[in-house]
Amino acid sequence: MLIECLLFLVALFLYFYKYTTRNFNRFKEIGIPYAKPSFPFGSFNFFKGEHVDILSLEHYQQFGKEKFFGCFFFGKPMFAVTDPNVLKVVQVKDFDIFVDRIDKVSNEKMFKGGYYDNIWNKQLTSLSGDEWKDVRAAFTPIFTSGKMKMMLKFIQHVSHDLLDEIEKKAKIGEEFELKSVFGKFSLDALASSAFGVNAETFTNKDSKFVEHAEKIFSAAPMQQMWLLIRLIPGIPDLLQALKISTNQPKSTKFFVDIIMQSIKRRRETKEKRNDMIDLMIESIKEDSNVNDDEDDKGDQYENDMKLKNSRRKQLDEEMIVSTAMVLLVAGYDTTGMTLSYLSYEMANNPEIQERLQEEIDQAFDEAGDKFPDYNVIQSLPYLDMVIHETLRVHPPVGVNFRNAERDYQFPDSNIIIRRSEGVLFNARHLHKLPEHWSHPDEFYPEHFSKEEKANRNPYVFQAFGQGPRACIGMRFALLEAKVAAMAVLRKFSFKPGTKTVTPLKIDNYSQLAYPKGGLWVKVEPRSEN
Predict the structure, then answer these.
(1) Which one of 3.40.50.300, 3.40.50.12240, 3.90.226.10, 3.30.43.20 gives the CATH number of domain 1-100+396-427?
(2) Which of 513, 493, 180 is nearest to 349 (CA)?
(3) Alpha carbon 144 to chain centroid distance?
(4) Domain extents for the chain?
(5) More confident call, 461 vs 321
(6) Contact, 520 vs 175, CB < 8 A?
(7) Among 177, 183, 319, 521, who pairs with 347 as Cys (CB 3.0-4.6 Å)?
């Protein structure tokens, strides 16, 4: 019996090896340079202990002067793009060919399983084809300018707790880790704006919100092991048959229960808060009154995001739960991380911090020392420049993928990508190209002045993506970041700490791109305010 088991395992390993390596000659056959692959990770040697963003950057450093080069993500051939003009074609012009982030088969390998894994399989970032278009069309009107104005009061309310926490840090006088504070603000603001729930992350030491959100975004060794196991053919189907969930099921259940309770309470009490849950429930009704905002005339980015030939289809409650959960959890990590990086840069660039404070002070003074309204917040140019420069230097997501729905020849080339092969691009590479950025290695907010933006290819900035598949929650995330920055910098100044490990190195166990050891600063009250 033991021999039979060993023979079965050997046969399974050999099958897995052959399945993974079957396309490893792809780029050699068509004659384009490529990053050498190896079993089982392809061109990304995760045994090195580096984050995927950094492993990808190594490829770009080797082949960055090529218009295209090849790499393999596990066994999947990926055409890595270095030219922003090609990205315009992929993300906008021929979007219908590159609708999906990854192919449906690969996505099911990650999320096929029990009920809680299926929730992740239905999140907006996982959906594909027409199903994704239907959900995106249903939920996009939630994030118009008009809806953001209604949610501003919830964010401002949470900013009071943020200020109280910062004041405590200032009184103690010791340096503190930034994401431990701004992550709480982001999660509280989202919980309030989305579900009418007080997460109490600042005031209740027993609050489980941050604990569970951090677990979901942790690429812990056990999660990495499950990812490898799921690549074995037949394993995802077995997990589904046995109804086993492997993607942080306890933490997923925590957020699913909160969202379901919020939906149930709204329907029973008929309470209306005009928050995301109200708008989501309204958006899936056949007679929905949630429409696009005519005030959103938009620029290039806004116009490219619009879906063509989409339909607003009635969706089920499970789709609300999946979408709400990814907005909550993803918003917590990305916005909390961005605010942490922004504060770190302010501490290390005092002249930029001072200029930003002058703009914020003027806005408050003109508002009679009250918090400025939505239109004023959105009209502050230097604040907008500083936030976008933070996202350029420290993008939360570096590596992005698109999947080819059918065979396609790239314009002005003889390169043909096959159906189910992928396109890969790295925001960290694009954000440092000296031909597009005047001071690529500096924190330089003027990169986002009208003059520099007018002279730059817009597709070289990929912090939110571009085109119809760009981040649906971008407006909310930017508003949240602006409110937090204005509230804090009106009253306090950041000073450099000593505990930050420099140069910054992305933590390999962070799904997104937060540095190992965290970001540490001190904070001091501003005497004049």
Answers:
(1) 3.30.43.20
(2) 493
(3) 19
(4) 1-100+396-427, 113-348+489-525
(5) 461
(6) yes
(7) 521
Rounded Cα–Cα distance for residues 41 and 78 (Å) = 13
Distance CA 334, CA 183 (A): 9
Domain spanning 113-348+489-525: which superfamily? Cytochrome P450 (1.10.630.10)
**CB-based contact 191:197 (threshold 8 Å):** yes
CA distance 264 to 477: 26
Place of tokens 């009635």: 314
Q: What is the DSSP string of 304-321?
A: HHPPSS-------HHHHH
CA atoms within 13 A on the CB side of 355: 13
Determine contact, residues 334/512, Cβ cutoff 8 Å.
yes
DSSP-derived 3-state class of residue 424: strand
DSSP states along 220-259: -HHHHHHHHHHTSTTHHHHHHHTT---S-HHHHHHHHHHH
Summarize pLDDT for 129-167 with one digit per residue, the tens. 888 888 888 888 888 888 888 889 989 999 999 999 999
Positive or negative CA dihedral for 423, 427, 429, 432?
positive
Cα separation, 92 vs 87, in Å, equals 8
pTM of the model: 0.91
Q: Which two tokens stand for residue 231?
A: 């690549």
Segment 27-68, tens digit of pLDDT: 999 999 999 999 989 999 988 889 999 999 999 999 988 889
Tell whether the model's pLDDT for residue 290 goes beyond 70: no
The predicted structure's pLDDT at residue 385: 98
* Phi, psi torsion values for 415, nearest 5 degrees: -85, 125
Between CA 458 and CA 456 the distance in angstroms is: 6
Tell me, what's the pLDDT at 249? 86
Q: How big is the chain, counted in residues?
A: 529
| Nearest C-alpha neighbor of 506 from the set 519, 521, 520 | 519
Nearest to 432 by CA among 405, 384, 395, 474: 395
Two tokens, residue 205: 């030491």
Specify whether the CB–CB gap between 325 and 255 falls below 8 A: yes
For residue 176, give the 3-state DSSP assignment: strand
Cβ–Cβ under 8 Å, residues 33 and 59? no
